[in-house]
Amino acid sequence: MSAQNKRLSMRSESPLVVVTAPSIDSEEWIKSWKEVNARDLVVSPSIFSVDEETSVEEACDALLSENILCLAVKSRSSDSYTGLFDFSDVNAFLTLAATRHILPPEELREKPRVDQIVAAAKAGRVPVHLVSNLSEKNPLETLPWDANILSLLAVFSGGTHRVLIQESPPSANYLGIVSDRQLLSWFFSYAEKTPSFMQFISNSLHSLSLPSLNIYSAVVASTSSRSVLDAMKLMSEEGVSSVAVVEEETGSLLSAVSVTDIGKIVVPSQSNQILSTPLNQFISQIKEPDGSTDGADKYPVYSVFPTSMLSYTIQKLLATNAHRLFVIKDTSITLGSTATSGNLSGIVSIVDILSLFARIAQIRDVDPTRNQRHRRASSASSQSSRSDRDLAGSRSSSRTSLRPSSMSGNSPSGQSPENTRTSMSGLDPSCYQWAERVPK
After folding, report:
1. Treating both helix axes as pointing N-terminal to C-terminal, what angle do 56-65 and 87-99 enclose, rounded to 10 degrees?
2. 5-37+196-368 in CATH: which number?
């Protein structure tokens, strides 16, 4: 991995005292959590779904037009759900499209689905079932009608972000989807009604330095001069849904780019030149002031300090609709920040926080990085067969096929909807097909 696209490995000093939940209080909390059904967290009974043979382009259209983060993919033969499709999968697909020409033949043999996607793209239509969970971050998980809060914690503490809740037996249908964000919101509401739990989450992140929080773990980051495509590849290779964008000289946090940004900005773009856009320009399109309580935040809204309370961190995650926040050094009280380390000291995500609660609930095998490690190991295996020279040479020539077409809703780039749509699989015979735009 280049020095400019890297995993930052910076650690702060460990806290002198680690706060743990009082056993008497935690027993009461767990008892209360067992009494709440997972189905009570389903906001809407609707599950947005698409047929498995729907094109990946049409599926992405649905994500954008319906302003949703995930689709369920339905089988034609069994009328059941076979997988999920979200913006992580969109990012993985676009990255594959842009880097197809540097994939060695042995990688295609090792990954039959990638070979199938390439073949389908050359034929002009990629069905969404081939791209469902291509990111390996979006597995299909289900829970029965009688599942409770602990059941949700067990699923989400493994790194999964969504789960389908079944209807009451004997029905084979599903009531709806519950996300990790919905569960985090429920826990904050629970804290507002439970003083002892609110007191616990009012401790600082620093004092709750458990392995599940990963506050001081390595941060996946890219410098601001790197391109959008570099960030997309980095997210796909590292198995993460966002990367920190740091200042070129000091390494200080500037912003972040997520797979949702890729889906909402890159996909509707009228030109594939956006892939070579420097990140410092790209973030100016997607980041607006948000989350500030007094209008004078000195730091980005997607960051917190090690001294920030967990309750504040939860509120900020919910208010900014972010999945993770970067932990930065408070330079007003911390000295010695250097140009090589910048102000980043770690990261904290929704999954990390839910994993903390899962440990309180004594759930076994809590591992919030399980899916990420699996994806990273898969990527490392693929990259081992490529040289750094090949990767460096690909950056200037990697391209995806883009075409204008109609789109409902407003374009985030300010263009008219009818002129902003990406052709990811080349459905329109009058435009360049994906395979024709990728170097042979």
Report:
1. 140
2. 3.10.580.10
